[in-house]
Amino acid sequence: MADEEALAILRQGVEVWNQWRSENLEKNIDLIEANLLKANLNKANLTGANLTKANLIGANLIRANLSFADLRKADLRKANLTGANLYGTDINEANLTGANLYGTDLNEANFDGSELHSTDISFANLSRANLSESQFFWGYLIKSNLSEANLTGADLHGTDISFAKLTGANLYEAKLSKVNLTGANLTEANLSQLKALGANFAFANLTGACIEDWHINNETNFTGVICAYIYLRDGEKERRPSDPTVDFAPGEFVALVQKSLETVDLIFADGIDWKAFLSSFNELKTQYGEDKLAVQAIEQKKSGAFVIKLEVPQEANKGEIERQAKEYYENNLKLLETRYHKELQAKDEQIILYRQHNTSLEKIIDMLGNRPIQNIINVTAQSESKSMSESNQSNFSVGGNVDGNVNNVQGDNNRAVQGDNNQAVLGDNNQVTQQNQVGTGESLTKEDIVKLLAELETLVKGAKLPNDTKKEVIEDLSATKNATDKEEPNKKRALERLTTVAETLEKTSKSVEAGNKIWSTAKPIIVKVATWLGAVVSSHLLGL
Question: Angle CA(433)–CA(434)–CA(438) in degrees, nearest 5?
């Protein structure tokens, strides 16, 4: 509670208060929860005062000295703090809705979690201030100094920040939808994961800013933006233009931004398992539509990392697509590694060598880089008869006709892929798969196939199989069913997951008694479904 003596003096007027204050500079001013509703505190010396949870609604604090004061959770709604000194003040979780802080000194002030709805802090000094997680809807920061301010996670929806200085400011995960940043100086600001849908950056300066994973849309305005260079990754990494001696030519930055509206970058820092990626990519296409996603480009960094650019619709939620892509990839990677360990008795270091060896498959993806992947290419990356760490020195070549284009790529590792939309794959052990279609299964309908898959799923659930095997098979069956039970069935995707089901059950039949029983029942069902899905002549499925 407030110190009654101090409160009584304050209520005698600012002149009496300031005189008493000057004579008691060492005294701690305790005004906790003080009721100062509409109080006239013009030019009051409240340096270092504790005003935690104080009621200052409508108070006149014009040119008051509140430096280093404690205003945590104070109610300052519609208070007038024009020209006040709030240097180093703690305003954590305070309510400043509708308050006027025009021209105030808020250098290093702490607004963490404060409510600033419709608050006017124009022409103010907020240098190094902490506004993280603050709620600043439809407010005013016109021509304010926010250099090196912390706006992490702040919600500034609809706020006018035109011509403000935000050099070196941290706006990580800030929400700037519909915000006016006309003429703002954002040089070297951190705009990572910023949400700026419909924001106005007209004539703003973004030189040296970091725009990693920021969220913009076709309503975000970049008219007349000034930008010599930009960083795509935090820590001044991935500079664009890449050459540090070169700056963007007029219009180049805007072109880069507009291109980013249609792409999602998937970064694989520790290398990539291409089989896991292809499975993941097809899961994404099943979810978003065959014609909605495409691999636009692939980059391999000097560090060994891969960046795969996915072309997506402008209106798509890019963050969600990236999250799902990573989730699908990790799930498929775990399934594959489990399979590698089981089938090849590989050790962890061999799995790592295998993945490193597998990086040559970038040639296959690169062949399809600028068009939708229409056909699933199942490549046997290593023959089981060879050591996973063995490396080949022969040429690698890709030839074929995909969507009417022929591509040839030269490289290492003794791989060849040839095709004319029905692709053939040649691998280390002269393994050839030709996709000549047989058995259309026209006597069976899609509904029949879905029922067969459901029957197979029930069969597996009731079998006494190892838990990890059962879980793996059920997941693959569920994916097969989902890909089939669509208005336009994704037969390629379904066939890929069905093949995995067959391989797992067949292997289990050789080591588990219950596996042998279920395999004899499941095999004819799998063959029927595989035929309807259009399995190829030499497919393992049709040779069961």
Answer: 120
Whether a cis peptide bond, with omega within 30° of 0, leads into 489 is no
Q: Which residues contact 38 (CB under 8 A, 6 or more apart)?
A: 57, 58, 59, 60
Q: What is the pLDDT of residues 9-39, one digit of tens each?
A: 999 999 999 999 999 988 999 999 999 999 9
Q: Residue 118: what residue type? A: S
Closest CA to 35 of 73, 7, 62: 7
- Token reading at 347: 């050790």
Report the 3 state secondary structure along 385-432: CCCCCCCCCCCEEEEEEECCEECCEEECCCCEEEECCCEEEECCCCCE
> Per residue in 530-539, is it b (16+ CB within 10 Å) or e — as a string?
bbbbbbbeeb
In the chain, domain spans:
264-383, 446-543
The predicted-structure confidence for 380-423, as pLDDT tens digits, reads as follows 333 333 322 222 222 222 222 223 332 333 233 333 333 333 33
Other Cβ atoms closer than 10 A to 57: 20
CA-based nearest residue to 216, from 85, 225, 208: 225
Can you name the residues that pair with 240 across neighbouring β-strands?
Answer: 230
Indicate the average pLDDT of the chain: 80
| Contact call for residues 110 and 154 (beta carbons, < 8 A) | no
Please name the residue that has the structure tokens 């540090």: 244
**Strand, coil or helix: 123:** coil
Burial (CB count <10 Å: 0-12, 13-18, 19+), residue 403: exposed
Residue 364 predicted with pLDDT over 60: no
How would you write 209-266 as a 3-class SS string?
CECCCCECCCCCECCCCECCCEEEECCCEEEECCCCCCCCCCCHHHHHHHHHCCEEEE
Alpha carbon distance 264, 288 (integer Å): 14
Q: Which of 325, 240, 337, 261 is nearest to 288 (CA)?
A: 325
Residue 350, pLDDT score: 54
pTM strictly above 0.70: no
- Six-digit token pair at 500? 């995995």
Q: What is the DSSP letter of 297?
A: E
Question: Is the CB of residue 109 less than 8 Å from the CB of residue 86?
Answer: yes
For the chain, report the end-to-end CA distance as a whole number of angstroms: 83
Q: 246: Cβ–Cβ under 8 A, 6 or more apart, which residues?
A: none
Over the stretch 96-127, which tens digit does the pLDDT of each residue have? 999 999 999 999 999 999 999 999 999 999 99
Here the tokens at position 230 are 């930009």
Supply the pLDDT for residue 366: 47
CB 116 within 8 A of CB 96: yes
Rg of the chain taking only CA atoms, in angstroms: 32
Contact 154, 193 (CB under 8 A): no
- Cα 130 to chain centroid, rounded: 25
pLDDT for the residue numbered 62: 97
CA 23 to chain centroid: 58
Q: For 140-235, where are the alpha helices, taking DSSP H only?
A: none
Whether the CB-CB separation of 306 and 299 falls below 8 Å is answered with yes
Confidence class of residue 371 from pLDDT cuts 50, 70 and 90?
very low
Specify the DSSP class assigned to residue 306: E
